[in-house]
UniProtKB/TrEMBL annotation:
<feature type="domain" description="SIS">
    <location>
        <begin position="54"/>
        <end position="196"/>
    </location>
</feature>
<dbReference type="InterPro" id="IPR035490">
    <property type="entry name" value="GlmS/FrlB_SIS"/>
</dbReference>
<protein>
    <submittedName>
        <fullName>Glutamine--fructose-6-phosphate transaminase</fullName>
    </submittedName>
</protein>
<dbReference type="Pfam" id="PF01380">
    <property type="entry name" value="SIS"/>
</dbReference>
<dbReference type="InterPro" id="IPR046348">
    <property type="entry name" value="SIS_dom_sf"/>
</dbReference>
<dbReference type="InterPro" id="IPR001347">
    <property type="entry name" value="SIS_dom"/>
</dbReference>
<dbReference type="GO" id="GO:1901135">
    <property type="term" value="P:carbohydrate derivative metabolic process"/>
</dbReference>
<dbReference type="InterPro" id="IPR035466">
    <property type="entry name" value="GlmS/AgaS_SIS"/>
</dbReference>
<dbReference type="GO" id="GO:0097367">
    <property type="term" value="F:carbohydrate derivative binding"/>
</dbReference>
<feature type="domain" description="SIS">
    <location>
        <begin position="216"/>
        <end position="357"/>
    </location>
</feature>
<keyword id="KW-0677">Repeat</keyword>
């Protein structure tokens, strides 16, 4: 039986679902779930009381260190949370290597440590084992997932349901942004915040999708025949670059590689030339400003740069997708929206079905 604080949002009667007797066409689930996000995000931001309750339990016994455990897209959300924890809470934070527990049976002293396990399904055996072992070793454990009755929620002391609703496409879209928003609300509440920077996140997400429609179409036309692409960002936006690389690889089968802007200049830039496409995430703030020199360098080498973000207009690029400006720490929630639509469009343009990528399943079980 689960003990400790628990929060689950109800299934909303306005939830958008696909009900049809015919077999859905390629990408229909993914397209619908991308379109669903503004409404979902608005409801998550409004219903933050449960997150606040979990945050208070954490703040009442402040940790000295934070660890985050995740896989796949959730790992990118965890990296985003790492930035939030270090910058907004002033706590050191690190990403867990699950195999140290599952394969090597390491059992470090985790007293006064906060472990946040992030999983859309909550069913990956390695994350369940890591969370259970961490709790046994003294950690305060928090499960963040989209499945209230999952094994992960069962072994954690505290739990938060991200409330994204059922996701039928294999590629994560609404569960990813819902996870980002939930993690932001959690960290913000731990520091005593009111979530003011995301009060209108649903409206901003709707604007991001509507205003980027034409530029997304142009990007699909421009890059449909590209063979390899580099994605890059700095600070909070590095998580978006990683997620962009994964989405392009798993839906369009592109040879995609993500680098932080700083790492890109430390060697990999030598492989950039006029045959290289670069998807650069650049939003208003310190991370976006740090990308200026990076994009100048890749532009000098002839790369075809697609800039995405609220600061896209201020960097050298062949194509730009501008987004509404927000506080820097919440920008990744919006940055990924046009990326998802580009991944969907490229997959369809290249003859694939992003709802059913070859060799992938919705829940990946690893140990």
């Amino acid at each position: 039986m689960h003990r400790g604080y628990y929060w689950s949002r109800p299934q909303w009667v306005t939830e958008r679902t696909i009900v049809s007797e015919r077999k859905p066409g390629p990408g229909e689930y993914m397209a619908a779930e991308i379109a669903e996000q503004p409404g979902r995000l608005a409801r998550i931001a409004e219903a933050r009381d449960g997150v606040v309750e979990v945050a208070r339990a954490i703040a009442d016994r402040p940790p000295r260190f934070a660890l985050l455990a995740a896989r796949g897209s959730s790992d990118h959300a965890a990296l985003y949370a790492k930035y939030l924890i270090e910058v907004l809470l002033g706590l050191p934070a690190g990403l867990v290597s699950p195999s140290t527990t599952t394969l090597y049976e390491a059992r470090p002293d985790l007293r006064e440590v906060l472990l946040v396990s992030v999983s859309q399904s909550g069913g990956s055996p390695d994350l369940v084992e890591v969370t259970a072992a961490a709790r046994e070793r003294g950690a305060r454990t928090v499960a963040v997932s989209n499945t209230a009755d999952s094994p992960l929620h069962g072994v954690a002391e505290l739990a938060v349901d991200i409330g994204a609703g059922p996701e039928q496409a294999v590629a994560a879209t609404k569960t990813y942004t819902a996870t980002l928003l939930t993690l932001y609300l959690l960290v913000d509440a731990i520091r005593g915040g009111t979530g003011e920077h995301v009060h209108d996140i649903g409206k901003l997400a709707e604007q991001a999708l509507e205003r980027s429609d034409g530029d997304v179409s142009r990007a699909i036309d421009r890059y449909r025949f590209v063979d390899r692409i580099i994605t890059s960002g700095r600070g909070y936006s590095y998580a978006t670059a990683l997620e962009a690389s994964l989405k392009l690889a798993e839906t369009s089968y592109l040879a995609a590689r993500a680098y932080s802007g700083a790492d890109l200049l430390h060697g990999p830039v030598a492989a950039v030339d006029e045959d290289t496409a670069v998807l650069a995430v650049t939003s208003a703030g310190k991370g976006g400003r740090a990308m200026h020199d990076v994009l100048g360098a890749v532009a000098d080498r002839g790369a075809d740069v697609l800039a995405i973000g609220s600061a896209a207009e201020s960097v050298p690029a062949a194509l730009r997708i501008g987004l509404p400006e927000t506080a820097e720490e919440v920008a990744p929630i919006l940055e990924v929206l046009p990326v998802q639509r580009i991944a969907l469009g490229l997959a369809l343009a290249r003859g694939g079905d992003p709802d059913r990528p070859r060799g992938l399943r919705k829940v990946t079980r690893t140990r």
